Amino acid sequence: MRIWINRTLRSFGVNIGKRLWFLRIIWGIFRAAFHPGTIPKTAEGIMFDFKGLYNLRHKILKLGAPALVSRGTLAVWGIIHIFIIRMIPEEAFAAYAVARTFETFGALLGGGFIQQAILKMVSEGDGRREHELANAGVFLALVLAALSAVLLIGMEGTADRFYSELNLAGLPVLLAAVVFTGTVAGMPRALLLTRHRTRDVMYVDLLQFTLRGGIIGALIIGGTLRTGHQIFTATIIANICSFFLSLGLSRVFFFTDAPLKWNRIVTMLNFSLVCLGTATANYIYTSTDIMMLGKIAPGDVAEYGAARSLSGVFAMVNAAANMVLLPLFSRMWRQGQRGLIISRAWSGVLIAELILLPAFIALVFFPKQVLNVVFSGRYVESWPVTMLLGAMILVRPVGSYFSTAALAVGKPQYSLYSVIISSAVNVGLNLLLIRSYGGFGAAMATSVAMILSTWWIVRKAIRYINSRF
Question: Distance (Å, rounded) from C-alpha 241 to C-alpha 181?
Answer without folding.
Answer: 10
